[in-house]
Amino acid sequence: MVPRDELDDIHEHTKLRRFVLVALGAVIAISLGIVVLRPAEEKRGTEGKAPAMSLAILGEEERLSDADLRGTPVVLNLWASWCDPCRREARVFEAAHQKYGDRIRFIGVDVRDTVEAAQAFIEEFGVTYTNVFDDGHRFADALGYAGLPQTYFLDDEWNFVATADQVLGELNEADLEAGIEALLEAD
Question: Which of 14, 62, 122, 153 qualifies as a cystine partner to 161, CB 3.0-4.6 A?
Fold first, then answer.
């Protein structure tokens, strides 16, 4: 038998526990509501013109600038030799370059890498489109990149194409072609 005064203590403890659980549930619900209902943040680096670019072409003594690319739509892919998704999509980008290279410039931008590792990557995957080296990742930072690989679609005036937008992560053949088709339609 439990004495009555102990039952009263148990009852008060249960009420306190119930209040704490309800209050905790309310805090969690409010926090989730704030996250879900707040307006989506604008994507960094995908409105208007892309930032100016002047980067060394890998394997050459020349530099490539955004001015050199005006007049042709551009698929701009940020990558690194040590990035597994970048390695998996390398052949996809090369195949797309072979298919669309007469209408679109494909530019690879090596980020957070060494020149030697980047050149070895290009040789390993038989990449024939132009690749540049972003020493210090200043251009990638100006783009507002969030990780690697990341792909941007730019019109012939170096503007981001909203219909294609940017893609963070590995692209398969179908997704890359969809972005290219949107880029060609916008041009």
Answer: 153
